[in-house]
Specification:
Elements (H helix, E strand, L loop, with lengths): L4 E8 L2 E2 L4 E4 L8 E7 L20 E6 L5 E7 L3 E7 L3 E8 L10 H5 L2 E3 L14 E4 L3 E2 L9 E4 L1 E9 L8 E10 L1 E2 L1 E3 L6 H4 L3 E2 L3 E3 L11 E6 L30 E9 L3 E9 L15 E8 L12 E2 L4 E2 L3 E5 L2 E4 L5 E3 L1 E5 L10 E5 L5 E3 L4 E4 L3 E9 L6 E8 L6 E5 L3 E3 L7 E8 L5 E5 L5 E5 L3 E6 L3 E9 L6 E9 L2 E5 L3 E5 L5 E2 L1 E5 L8 E4 L5 E3 L4 E4 L3 E8 L6 E8 L8 E7 L3 E8 L4 E6 L5 E3 L10 E8 L3 E8 L3 E9 L6 E8 L5 E3 L3 E5 L3 E2 L3 E3 L9 E4 L5 E3 L5 E3 L3 E9 L2 E10 L1
């Protein structure tokens, strides 16, 4: 074990004033008075390495006391020659205080003996580069010319500190930058011993030396001063110098003077600030006394590491651990492609290694295989082997290495897409995801054969496809390092198209039944549906299935649309109902049934005109098969008898106008063709009501429907209205069409309202 020793040597110094005094009669003075003149000088001592002259005199307080202890005279002067007038033939005691820096008035010898001199700062102990001194004589009879000798004793102890580092280990570097003497008494009795009771626990930090002042520390030594501090033998029986520490619970623990040496320490294990502390005294183990006017020679010897004794005497808490060993983790790593990275973790021993000592220099034995940056991140470059070396910047002997292997696999590209059919303009179906499988670390470049058809946004491993226009395009992914390694997929882009069955124009009367727009969509994504929108629902409304209902006279259009398809338009023209004054004949038949729709006797011509919903007219004499719902046959018989026969083609309504030579104003025949197999039909072809009355039309349905299951509507709510249960209420004279929708079909009946 390494250790250090602290050695103390004591030397008692006696400082004598120049004892020569001349006693002479002063001309003109009293016969019983003589003048005693003191010419005081001190001897010179060597003070190498420090700025205080321990023998210099700057000022003096001189006292004379009578035999009974009364003050006879007191002089304070900055000169070294003093004159005191005393009585001849009397005996006096003389007291001298040197370098107090001020006059110290007292009234008696007893008060001066007990006087305590107080200082505030370390500088006060060495005022004007001098030290506080005191001296006194015994009772001296004054008879005439005679010599008076006064011995001046320094009130301070002088500590001569020398540091010996010759026995430190060769790899230890210790440099001191500050030395302080602490727990220095702030006061002292001038003419008596100073102990704990005298100082009243008043202590200050003493002198401090630093910087260039410490240059003589290992050659000639340095000097520090403290007032006398007598604490006695506190550790009787102690023989271990390292245990010379006062009991922390005793009052002396905060009163004993100690020396603190601060420096910078550096060894292979540690580096940083360090503090050494020691208690001086008359020995190195038990005593803590520092007597006045005493030179203590203190030699501090350091052995081995200088820090193995971890105690109050050596404070290593600020030392930083330095690295002793280094281990890189992992010790081996394999890359399977180029451009990959891995982070190497350095593990230091001891684990408490300070961050400032964890800096490493990283190098690669072959940067062409793998490179390494200043943080220990390794990047693969090409196939091969190399090693990575890390060296401590603080201690190049601390180092470690690890092995790197780079073995890239053969290029591979395998392409898949989430869907190879996309729909342009359909938000939910115009995108797809493409992904590739490559060898570990591989990456690809994407390519579209036709950017007008198929676009994409791609990365090294995936791409998002977007449909732009209808057509077919090929998506290709080829290896970034080897373009010959590739994979492709063909993607079809469709554009939804709306198809209308029949004319793009509808002509309707308000009183006629609704008409259905028949439309379909092709090239549409799964689940696509058509939507119908009326430009002006006041004129005509349209249901979700394309059923158009006339509301008011005018024109509008119905738009047919679905996502991604070009919209189609159906123009709708609505004409007003026939006048309520016209005569109506109601004819009802089933499909395939022939009935006599009309018969009349006339002496002239009789015309039957088919009135279409678009307002056009067709002469049934020439075009008996013009109506899609009824086939007509006009039978002219002798005697002016004319019969109009009608055969039902399919369910629906037709309107025929009749006029004759005798009655040119037209009468109308309203024909209804029913389908007996229809899932819904109204029992009454026509409903006659007077204004203000109501009825519930009868119906037949298969499968059976309740009245609430059927959707009820009236073509002209001014003539009549209907509620959700099918109850019809007549309002004013006229005709309107009642519509009942259910089981996928619409049945109609004519409402005739009379006054």
């Amino acid at each position: 074990m390494s250790y250090f020793r602290i050695c103390f040597f004591t030397l008692i110094l006696f400082l004598s004033a120049c004892q020569r005094g001349a006693i002479s009669q002063i001309a003109g003075g009293e016969e019983d008075t003589v003048t005693v003149t003191f010419n005081l000088r001190t001897g010179s001592l060597s003070t190498r390495g420090y700025d205080i002259d321990p023998s210099a005199l700057a000022d003096l307080n001189i006292y004379s006391f009578t035999e009974d202890g009364r003050l006879f005279s007191h002089v304070f002067s900055n000169d070294t020659e003093y004159a005191l007038q005393v009585l001849a033939g009397k005996s006096f005691r003389f007291y001298v205080v040197a370098n107090a820096g001020k006059t110290l008035p007292v009234l008696s010898q007893t008060l001066l003996e007990d006087l305590v001199f107080v200082t505030d700062t370390p500088e006060d102990m060495a005022r004007n580069r001098t030290l506080l001194m005191s001296g006194k004589t015994g009772l001296i009879p004054v008879t005439g010319n005679q010599s008076i000798s006064v011995m001046l004793i320094r009130c301070t102890a002088r500590l001569h500190i020398f540091v010996n580092t010759e026995n430190l280990a060769p790899d230890i570097n210790l440099l001191f930058n500050r030395i302080t003497i602490n727990n220095v008494p702030g006061s002292i009795r001038l003419f008596g011993p100073s102990s704990l009771q005298d100082t009243s626990s008043f202590f200050i930090q003493g002198e401090t030396m630093s910087g260039n002042e410490l240059e003589p520390l290992t050659t000639e030594g340095i000097f520090l001063h403290t007032y006398e501090n007598i604490q006695g033998t506190l550790l009787p029986g102690n023989e271990n110098p390292t245990a010379k520490i006062p009991d922390p619970l005793s009052p002396a623990a905060r009163c004993c003077t100690f020396i603190e040496m601060e420096g910078m320490y550096e060894s292979p294990e540690y580096r940083g600030p360090i503090k050494y502390r020691l208690y001086p005294g008359t020995d190195n183990t038990t005593n803590f006394d520092l007597f006045r006017n005493t030179l203590y020679k203190i030699t501090v010897n350091f052995y081995g590491s200088g820090i193995n004794e971890m105690s109050w005497r050596i404070d290593t808490s600020a030392l930083d651990s330095r690295p002793l060993e280094l281990c890189l983790q992992p010790a081996w790593y394999r890359f399977n492609t180029y451009g990959q990275t891995c982070r190497i973790t350095p593990v230091f021993q001891p684990a408490t290694t300070h961050p400032d000592f964890r800096r490493l220099l990283w190098t690669s034995s072959n940067p062409g295989v793998a490179s390494v940056d200043s943080t220990g991140e390794v990047t693969s470059v090409h196939n091969g082997n190399c090693y990575i070396l890390a060296v401590s910047e603080d201690n190049p002997q601390v180092r470690d290495s690890m092995v790197i292997e780079v073995e890239k696999a053969s290029p591979l590209v395998s392409l898949t897409v989430s869907s190879d059919t996309l729909y342009a303009g359909c938000e939910s179906y115009m995108f797809a995801q493409a992904a590739v499988v490559t060898e570990p670390g591989g990456s690809v470049v994407w390519e579209s054969s036709d950017w007008n058809v198929l676009g994409f946004a791609g990365s090294d491993q995936s791409a998002t496809l977007v449909a732009i226009n209808p057509g077919t395009a090929v998506l290709t992914a080829y290896h970034k390092d080897d373009p010959s390694v590739r994979d492709s997929v063909t993607v079809q882009i469709l554009k939804p198209t709306i198809n209308l069955s029949g004319s793009s124009e509808l002509y309707m009367y308000i009183t006629f039944s609704p008409k259905t727009i028949t439309a379909s969509v092709t090239n549409a994504p799964p689940g696509a549906t058509l939507e119908f929108t009326s430009q002006n629902s006041y004129i005509a409304t349209v249901s979700g299935s394309g059923v158009v209902t006339a509301r008011h006279e005018g024109c509008t259009h119905i738009e047919v649309h679905t996502q991604g398809a070009e919209r189609k338009r159906v123009n709708v023209f609505i004409r007003q109902n026939l006048s309520s004054s016209n005569l109506f004949f109601l004819v009802e038949m089933n499909t395939g049934e022939t009935v006599c729709a009309d018969n009349i006797i006339t002496s002239g011509d009789c015309n039957y005109i088919l009135v279409s919903e678009n307002g056009s007219s067709t002469d049934l004499s020439f075009y008996p098969n013009a109506d899609p719902y009824v086939w007509f046959d006009i039978d002219n018989r002798p005697g002016g008898f004319i019969y109009l026969n009608a055969t039902g083609k399919k369910a629906g309504h037709s309107l025929v106008a009749r006029n004759t030579q005798e009655d040119p104003e037209a009468d109308y025949i309203y024909l209804t063709v029913k389908d007996s197999t229809a899932p819904l039909s109204l029992t009454d072809t026509a409903i006659s009501l007077t204004a203000g009355t109501c009825t519930e039309p009868r119906y037949e349905s298969s499968p059976a429907l309740t009245r609430q299951d059927i959707v009820w509507m009236v073509s002209d709510s001014r003539i009549a209205s209907v509620d959700t249960n099918g109850k019809v209420t007549a309002h004013t004279c006229g005709q309107a069409v009642l519509m009942a929708t259910g089981n996928g079909v619409t049945a109609t009946s004519l409402i005739c309202v009379t006054p």
